[in-house]
Amino acid sequence: MSFTAIHDPTKNSLAEGYWFLFFRDRLVVSRNGDGGFTVPRPSGNAASPESTAPSGNAASPESAARSGNATPPENRIPPGNEAPAESAARPGNATPQENRVPPGNATPPENRVPPESAAPQVDPGSPENPGAAELAALRGKISRVLYFGRLDGVDCYAGDLASDDGLPDGFTADSLRPLYGKIPPSQMIPARFAGHLLHWDRSTRFCGSCGAPNRDKEDERAKVCSSCGALTYPRLSPAIIVAILDGKRILLAHNRRFATPFYSLIAGFVEMGETLEDCVAREVEEEVGVRVRNIRYFGSQPWPFPDSLMLGFIADYDGGEIRVDRRELLDARWFTPDNLPSLPAGDSIARRILTWYEKDYAPGLGPKGA
Ligand SMILES: [Zn+2]
User: From ligand 1's centre to the CA of 162, what distance in Å?
Assistant: First the structure.
């Protein structure tokens, strides 16, 4: 299974292929017979561009310019500070009842990854794709369509559903965060792409310099201002997450945002002018008051909520007493492999680093923890 991103605005109208539809910033998923998730693949009865992809939008330049190109701080949630999938729902961010994943699907995410073969790759209308019949109901609600690439040779479309009424029976909508591990990995990559792309598209309808409407640039993924010609490219907001090690000990923190009492790694957004290593050292000093050295890269994770890229690091403790930044954290302390607290679940860079710590790093140090 492979996904290739392709920019071709001439194909921005719904046709046969994979539809990655979003409803109120949540991915629309159909439920197939065995309780897994799949992105509906419609048959060839493509609607006309006129009926499915309205060109204009109703927002005034003023209101769009106000919403601007900047993500409000409250939306910039560092990945490592996110609750695990099981506890992603929190006050003020409640999932509407009709969008909830039904209880029958409430097994832990790690047990819920369907095999690749479980993702129906069949034309709708066939008995293997019971969600197909409802696609007609969704089609008329799509307010914006963006062609964005091919998954195993099949065209992929990102679409925004009008949010004024609910979803038809047979579909639910869920944040991509709790969907990690629930939908096939091959679909997760284009799903992340589609969510990020739609968010960027919505927030750049008007020029950030002069307020005139933007239009799609034909030869690359960018918007060009119809008045002053300014270019707007998709934005990525890098963030770091770091494991602080001292022999067998690991420093973990409980963030105020966490909905359940688990501990995770220190994380934060990269500031302008910083190297990634600068950011690691600064975030660690700001949040827990200790110094680190020997900062090395571990791995990364796209975190398009709405537009971050998470870069994971390991660093060695280099002195200082723990001093908790109470604005961000409720607690921070050293743990050892035999007294670890409850940790983030799911498939995240934080979880991967912690698994490496538990399974590879700490056992490799031997009984003395040298
Ligand atoms: Zn302009």
Answer: 27
